[in-house]
């Protein structure tokens, strides 16, 4: 793996910290991605930089989307998140998460 230059690695760490703040306040849909990126802040490589750019692109593209909530039964909570954001090269395999 080709590790990032020191200046870029510091920027990577800074942006991931900002995303961590955002996930707890407003964008829970990127929690899994940001949790992974936090494990990479010590020695990020070029692949990690690409993943960071991808989540930023996702945020930019989805910033105007509205959260829609609906209720079928007040005693059941369901929550689904696309956790991978198409990180696989073939974009056919996705890791999703659900909470019920």
Give start-end ranges of low-pLDDT stretches: 93-100
Major sheet size, sense and barrel closure? 2 strands, antiparallel
The SSE string, one letter per element, is HHHEE
Discrete helix count? 3
Question: Which structural class best describes the helix and strand composition?
Answer: mainly alpha
Distance between the termini: 38 Å
- The rounded Rg comes to 15 Å
* Strand percent estimate: 5-15%
Total number of beta strands:
2
Overall 3D shape: elongated
Mean pLDDT across residues:
82
- Kindly report the spatial arrangement of strands forming the biggest sheet: 1-2
Helix percentage range: 40-55%
Keywords summarizing the entry:
100 residues, mainly alpha, two-stranded antiparallel ribbon, 3 helices, disordered C terminus
How would you sum up this structure, described in words?
The chain has 100 residues and is mostly helical. The protein has 3 helices and 2 strands; from the N terminus they run H-H-H-E-E. The protein has helices at residues 6-25, 31-38, 46-62; strands at 79-82, 96-99. Strands 1-2 form a two-stranded antiparallel ribbon. It is elongated, with a radius of gyration of 15 Å.
